[in-house]
Amino acid sequence: MIEGKNRTICICVSDGDTYYSKLENLRIEDFVRTEDINADLVVTANSETLSALIQRKISPVKAYMTGDLKVKASLTDMLLLKRLF
After folding, report:
1. 2 lies in a domain?
2. Quick one: which of 27, 37, 39, 45 is 20 to 30 A from 6 by CA?
3. CATH number, domain at 76?
4. Which parts of the sequence belong to the SCP2 domain (predicted)?
5. Among 66, 31, 30, which residue's Cα sits nearest to residue 48?
6. What does the pLDDT look like over 40-63, one tens digit per residue?
7. From its phi and psi, is residue 42 left (phi > 0), alpha (psi between -120 and 50) or beta?
8. Does some domain include residue 1?
């Protein structure tokens, strides 16, 4: 399902910077700062939530269900994110 899927990913830190990356051939490139939020997948959260997600203190599903994590993507891309993380 993931192989052959090339997507752009934007992570918007609501109290910080915005970062952009590409997913190509099962590989996520390094994130770089950007002002552009046009991407196939846009993930928005504050720095506290993102830190908790990275440290696995909260699950992405819980953060999403409580509104702390917002994702703008097609259903197919949302399923892609779930498989990646």
Report:
1. no
2. 45
3. 3.30.1050.10
4. 7-83
5. 66
6. 999 999 999 999 999 999 998 899
7. beta
8. no
Spatial contact of 61 and 45, defined as CB atoms under 8 Å apart: no
Type of residue at 79? L
Query: From CA 52, how far away is CA 60, in angstroms rounded?
Result: 10
pTM, full prediction: 0.82
Q: Please answer whether residues 49 and 29 qualify as being in contact, where contact means their C-beta atoms are separated by less than 8 angstroms.
A: no
Domain of 70? Answer: 7-80
Residue 85 in domain: no
Handedness of CA 19, 25, 27, 29 (dihedral sign): negative
Q: Exposed e or buried b for every residue in 8-17, given b needs 16+ CB within 10 A?
A: bbbbbbeeee
> Low-confidence residues of the chain, pLDDT below 50?
1
CA angle 22, 24, 27 (to 5 degrees): 90
Q: Is residue 56 part of a domain?
A: yes
Both tokens of 50, joined, read 């993102």
